[in-house]
Amino acid sequence: MSLIVNGLTVDHGAIRAINGVSFTVERGKLAAVIGANGAGKSTLLRALSGLNAVTSGSAEWSNHNLLHGKPEAHVRSGVSHVSEGKSVVAELTVEENLDLGSLWRRNKKEAAESKKQVIELFPRLGERLTQRADTLSGGERQMLAIGRALMSKPQLLLLDEPSLGLAPLVIEQIFQTIRGIVDSMGLTVLLVEQNAMGALKIADTAVVLNLGSVAATGSAADLIADPAVRAAYLGY
Amino acid sequence: MFQFINTILIGLTSGAIYALMAMAIVLVWRSTRVINFAQAGLALASAYIGYQVVQSISNYWVALVIAMFAGAGLSALIEIAFMRVLLKHTSSGPIANVAPIIATLGLLGIIKATIAMIWGGQDVVVKPPLSNTGFSIGTHTLVFSPMKLAIVISVALLVLAFSVIFQKTNIGLALRASAFAPEIARLAGIKVDLVRTLGWALSGAAGAVAGLLLTSNGNGSFSPESIEFSLLLISGFIAAVIGGLESLVGAVIGGVVLGLVSSFVLMYISGSLFFIAPFVVLLLVLFIRPQGIIGVKAGRRA
């Protein structure tokens, strides 16, 4: 069971956003997708979760065709996407945001169990259950967005720039939490990040995107050591 | 003093009906970003269905409930068979924002024509189930009647039911999330298309009750060309805008405010200004507080 992306191509009108992207992520691994602004990172995630239409190529997660069906169907097959920019519903309370992720689940006992787990993982959310989501700090909102995704009991988690707009200390905390989710829950994570160094430090493998195409792939450790990657994406 | 109480009670009654219509408009706006002019047609069609039920079982209150469900069904049907297709084909380009609204105007015409084909163009009457003679206090007789009281109570019950649905149930959570952030709702696994249809159904239910109660606030007669239903649409729309267009609480407040203002203009200033008053209120709100009474300042959503 793994995520297999093959020759994925996505067009935004006349502009080719992603061009023949291929890579594989083994189950239980954390893979980072890094690259400059406009490299096609978010488009890649949006294509995988069914938000964006795809021109050609294939993408499978444990025999489930990710390029077929709506996002709500993907969620039911164990694929959850946390979209860019703290994907919480500002007008709802913290608890309502969490419940939203498990509304589709039939087994309410299991859903309640998931909520307990999420609150154990993010105690700050537990203290703020009745607060509206727009009263939270940036870091707390990101925790809530990830928490909501975990409420859907995913096996594959797609995270789009969780570090965006956060303070360095909070970023460090979020990254460690993501690593913790992979290690303790056995989830597979595809992490899109502009913060290349931070992402590579916690990732097992990485894909480097440049102008919509794969510039390099490999283990995160090898890529950190690669002089070309260092110069282009890590800035030293 | 006596006239003052009368004025408030009359304003409250018509305000309650405007509030329902405003809720109907807000529910469709929140779920699809369309101002639904066909709402007046749906309310009219529901009133006719109520008329048909009263004809056969002669129980007004059962007819009101049946008309409510019929309105919900009709509205859901319009969303599925018409709006869904239309929005898919006009999702981009300069006409994207205008086409669906113009289309609802066309629908309004179609619904009215269909009603005229089925029931004919002349007036029908649904006799108000309660007396329209006002309550008496001592030697004074109020304009406020048992029927008007029943109208206010019916609207209050429906508003209460809606607020329980929206605030306390899973369906309500799905409805609110889909309205505020459809993409996030979708990513959380909510079937947003289905929820959208449900929003239209609830809107149709509110509009249907508004339609039948509207006729009972008068002498009970109406026809496909009744001016009252067009005014109901306009009043409901103005009330919805006063309330900020996004909020059900705002819609109710907007309806009551509009009802009271109209009533005071009618009783204290001039009957000839009655039709102008709502537009003056609308302009004032748009000039002074364009986001509506409890609306949020623009920014979160386009």
Features:
heterodimer, A: 236 residues, alpha/beta, Rossmann fold, 6-stranded mixed sheet, 4-stranded antiparallel sheet, globular, B: 302 residues, mainly alpha, two-stranded antiparallel ribbon, two-stranded antiparallel sheet, 72% helix
Question: Could you write a compact summary of the structure shown?
Answer:
Chain A has helices at residues 41-48, 71-76, 94-102, 108-121, 123-127, 138-150, 168-185, 196-202, 220-225, 227-234, and strands at 2-12, 15-26, 30-34, 56-61, 64-65, 79-82, 156-160, 188-193, 205-210, 213-219. Chain A is of the alpha/beta class. In chain A, helix 3 (94-102) packs parallel to helix 6 (138-150).
List the helices and strands and how they pair.
The complex is a heterodimer of chains A (236) and B (302).
Chain A: E1 2-12, E2 15-26, E3 30-34, H1 41-48, E4 56-61, E5 64-65, H2 71-76, E6 79-82, H3 94-102, H4 108-121, H5 123-127, H6 138-150, E7 156-160, H7 168-185, E8 188-193, H8 196-202, E9 205-210, E10 213-219, H9 220-225, H10 227-234
Parallel strand pairs in A: 3-8, 3-9, 6-7, 7-8
Antiparallel strand pairs in A: 1-2, 1-4, 4-5, 9-10
Chain B: H1 2-32, H2 39-57, H3 60-89, H4 99-119, E1 124-125, E2 136-137, E3 140-141, H5 146-168, H6 170-180, H7 182-187, H8 192-217, E4 221-222, H9 227-242, H10 248-269, H11 277-288
Antiparallel strand pairs in B: 1-4, 2-3
Describe the model:
The complex is a heterodimer of chains A (236) and B (302). Chain A is an alpha/beta fold and 236 residues long. Chain A has a single domain, classed as Rossmann fold, CATH 3.40.50.300. Chain A has ten helices and ten strands. Chain A has a six-stranded mixed β-sheet with strand order 6-7-8-3-9-10, with helices on both faces. In chain A, strand 9 and strand 10 (213-219) form a beta hairpin. Chain A starts with a strand and ends with a helix. The mean pLDDT of chain A is 92. The radius of gyration of chain B is 19 Å and the shape is globular. Chain B has 302 residues and is an all-alpha fold. In chain B, strands 1-4 form a two-stranded antiparallel ribbon. Chain B has a two-stranded antiparallel ribbon with strand order 2-3. In chain B, helix 1 crosses helix 9, helix 2 crosses helix 8 (192-217) and helix 9 packs across helix 10 (248-269). The A-B interface holds A 49, 51, 70-72, 75-76, 80-83, 87-92, 96, 99-101, 103-104, 148-149, 151-152 and B 170, 173-174, 176-177, 180-181, 183-192, 300.
